[in-house]
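Practice problem: predict the structure.
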Amino acid sequence: MKIALFSDIHANLPALEAFFADLDSREIDAVYCLGDLVGYNIWPNEVINEIKRRKIPTITGNYDFGIGRNIDECGCAYKTDLEKEMGKVSISYTNGVVRDAERAYLRRVPA
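Answer:
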C-alpha cells in the first residue's frame, strides 16, 4: 500500500498544483494532509477548496487553527523581530481574505 503525506502548503496554490500533478502520475492508495493549508501566500481559499474538492483527510496545523478562529496568532516560532513583524503581516492578510465558508472548514478540521 502506498500512502502520500503532505503538509505546510501555506496557501501556495502553484506548489499544491505541482504536487497533485506529480501525485496523479503515481499509483497512490491513500493521501493525507498534515495541516497548515493557509498562511504566508495569497491563495488560502483556493488551497482549502482544492483539499475539500479532493476529499483529502486533513488534520489542523497551527496556522489553520488561528485562521479558523480569526485570531491574530498562528502559534509560529519566529526567531527574530523581523520574522515576527512579517508574521503579523501574513496573519493579518490571511485573516482578511479567508472567506466565511473556508474559515468554517478550518474550524472543523480535527487536531
